[in-house]
Write a structure and sequence with these properties.
This protein has one domain (about 10-175). The chain has helices at about 10-35, 40-70, 85-115, 130-165, and strands at about 120, 125. Helices cover about 70% and strands about 0% of the residues. It is mainly alpha-helical. The structure holds protoporphyrin IX containing FE (2 copies). One protoporphyrin IX containing FE binds near residues 93, 97, 157 and 171.
């Protein structure tokens, strides 16, 4: 299996980035919603720390994924069946990246403005002063960006289904 992307297929590393992110998000989004419903306790703090560690890992993963994308050819777009189709696909992919960054960065800023020291895996960092108004504002971004992610992923999967069953252009072969 090829390591780099080719003009008709994603390479091994790009595939791994895509499917690992998918599996992690499949767990992390419901985990976040479950977390907010819990009563304050030591167990909740522990679960929140796990949520944060997974979230920061997604941040790094997406950063490395984009760097890898920059140094690789992108597989050519699938055949167009209607005007604007390629643009919609590109916009969907672009917004998925923006949304994942919005979720992770807003989560990080919420915690930093709460005055907490965060473990960024390679180093630890905290702001010198807290600001609860900003912490709350970034938390709102965290919540709404999650809803946006759900909408974009639904659209993404719907597009794959239409490609597969209606256009029959074997789009899944590019990424599997
Ligand atoms: C959390 C869920 C998902 C996210 C965030 C996501 C994100 C992305 C992104 C950002 C790309 C563009 C890759 C690039 O060129 O940079 C992509 C491509 C693709 N994804 Fe997903 N994806 C998800 C789930 C899925 C699922 C469940 C499927 C299959 C049912 C799928 C099938 C594809 C296919 C076929 C492509 C290639 C599209 C093309 O190049 O024309 N994705 N995905
Ligand atoms: C892609 C990664 C992430 C996803 C999908 C995600 C998802 C979520 C979701 C769905 C919620 C529940 C929101 C609500 O309904 O109130 C939540 C809560 C939370 N998230 Fe994340 N999150 C991610 C990354 C992060 C990161 C990186 C941090 C911090 C560094 C973070 C910190 C928090 C905190 C502290 C809460 C709970 C707040 C509270 O109840 O006080 N998240 N997350």
């Amino acid at each position: 299996m090829q390591f780099f992307n080719s003009f008709d297929k994603y390479g091994l590393l790009a595939k791994l980035f895509h499917w690992i992110t998918f599996i992690v998000l499949l767990v992390q989004v419901p985990f976040g919603f479950y977390l907010v419903g819990l009563e304050f306790s030591d167990q909740r703090i522990e679960l929140e720390n796990i949520h944060i560690l997974i979230g920061i890992t997604v941040f790094y993963l997406t950063l490395f994924r984009l760097i890898w994308k920059f140094f690789n050819p992108s597989p050519t777009e699938s055949k167009s069946f209607f005007k604007g189709q390629v643009l919609i696909g590109k916009a969907n992919h672009f917004l998925l990246y923006v949304t994942i960054f919005s979720i992770t960065i807003s989560g990080i800023l919420k915690k930093l403005y709460m005055g907490e020291i965060l473990n960024f895996i390679f180093f630890k960092y905290g702001f010198e002063k807290d600001n609860f108004v900003l912490a709350d504002a970034y938390y709102q971004v965290h919540i709404y960006a999650n809803y946006l992610l759900l909408a974009l992923v639904s659209l993404h999967i719907l597009a794959v289904i239409v490609h597969h069953f209606v256009f029959k252009d074997k789009i899944l072969n590019k990424i599997t």
